[in-house]
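Hi support team,

I'm opening this ticket because the web form for multi-chain structure prediction keeps timing out on my end. I have pasted the exact lines I submitted so you can reproduce it. The total is 330 residues across two entries, so I didn't expect it to be a heavy job. Is there a limit I'm missing, or should I split the entries? Thanks in advance, R.K.
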Amino acid sequence: MKVGVVTFPGSLDDRDAARAVRECGGEAVPLWHGDADLKGVDAVILPGGFSYGDYLRCGAIARFAPVMDALVPAAQGGLPVLGICNGFQVLTESHLLPGALIRNDHRKFNCVDQRLVVENASTAWTSDFEAGQEITIVLKNGEGGFVADEKTLDVLEGEGRVVFRYVPDADGRNPNGSYRHIAGITNERGNVVGLMPHPEHAVEAGYGPSLDGRGFFTSIIKQTLESAATA
Amino acid sequence: MGSIVVDVMLKPEILDPQGQAVAGALPRLGFDGFTDVRQGKRFVLTVDGDVTDEHLAAAREAAEKLLSNPVIEDVVAVHVLDEQAAAAEGSGEAEDGEQ
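Hello R.K., no limit was hit. The queue was backed up. Here is the completed structure from your submission:
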């Protein structure tokens, strides 16, 4: 079970993501932004960070890196892909996921233990959760406000493609101004998932707010083993 | 040496936190007549020789593909930079001859 983790110039959480894969029983394979080669992996993680310094727009330049020339068609063909934080921004810039991430409405950088509700537990990356389950993982971003036009938001809701929602605070606000409290979404097929919070920082006792992040990695490992068994 | 200007703005319905920050700072400097600020981006693309129609077409394509994100932004202008007009505008007086 091989999970590729892409490193772009400015990626920060690639090593944490690779470590999380290993902690949960998978093999992590480093992938390089400059190589259009997925090295035969079973799934790919686009990690958090500030690829290309967030220049132009977050994820806009990474989207045209050579590795994306291989990844975009593979994802469209069903390869499981998880975009975390900057990785989510790369997925929206690539149009693998709809909408966009803009600067937090309050203009401050977030760094908090964030409660989320799992809305969709049937994607490639969330099958080890239960719909309605509440999890707490780290949220750290400056540009995490999820926006899309009303029609797109309605389609996402109608098709069950909102995967995670922020638990709003007492004033009914979420941490970055995301429309409809959306923290993470998936594509029609359910193989591509993007979210702003960081599951890879919540997989090991003593580090992070919980072990809730493990479910992302155990889900994908289990699903890949199952699809290998039935292939 | 010619240049093409590409102007990109956030769509009107998209929140502009940077513009709001600027709008909040203006009254502190005594500029209290502005009711809103929207911040955009200007790209200046330079070519060898004069700007051709092909250059302009390529600039329009680049504007849609990379310079803007059509989900949240509009390309509001793609035009040839008029160096002399820009210089006159910048200095507040007409300048002649210099390239």
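A quick check on our side: The CA atoms of residues 13 and 61 of chain B lie 24 Å apart. Let us know if the file doesn't open in your viewer.
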